[in-house]
Model the fold of this input.
Amino acid sequence: MGEQHQHQDHTDCGIPKYDSRDLVIREDIIKKAKELAELIGTSEEVVQFQKAEKLIKNHERIQALISAIKKKQKEIVAFESFQNKNMVDKIEREIDELQDELDGIPLVTEFQQSQSDINYLLQLVVSVIRDTVSDKVNVETGNEPAVTSGYGE
Done:
């Protein structure tokens, strides 16, 4: 029906508008997604992450280590441009030592753990949504892509 004309409706001078898909996304779905995001924002995982993040920002030794690592990473870029492999190797070893010290601080470990907990939580939510939707799609289309449904089975 009108689907073939949709692409032409949303282009200017033949340049596709890549955000044209956004026009067909239902606002109620976006609203629910935002509500879900806010709910996740109150979860224990996010609360723990925010606490750890705040403590890290105020932890002098951690901040000093992070600054030193960033500085040395910039030095590596400079020495690489001069193709000075010895200095690059030396600085990389220094970065490894700083990184080891950083990783050895319990607060950093807690922070990294809370980051991976949040990632796990988000992946879980996405897979629940994906599985629930694909169950519905498979049942309704008889395991065929939506485009071909209608003539078959």
About this structure: Helices lie at 3-9, 27-41, 44-57, 60-81, 85-103, 106-141.
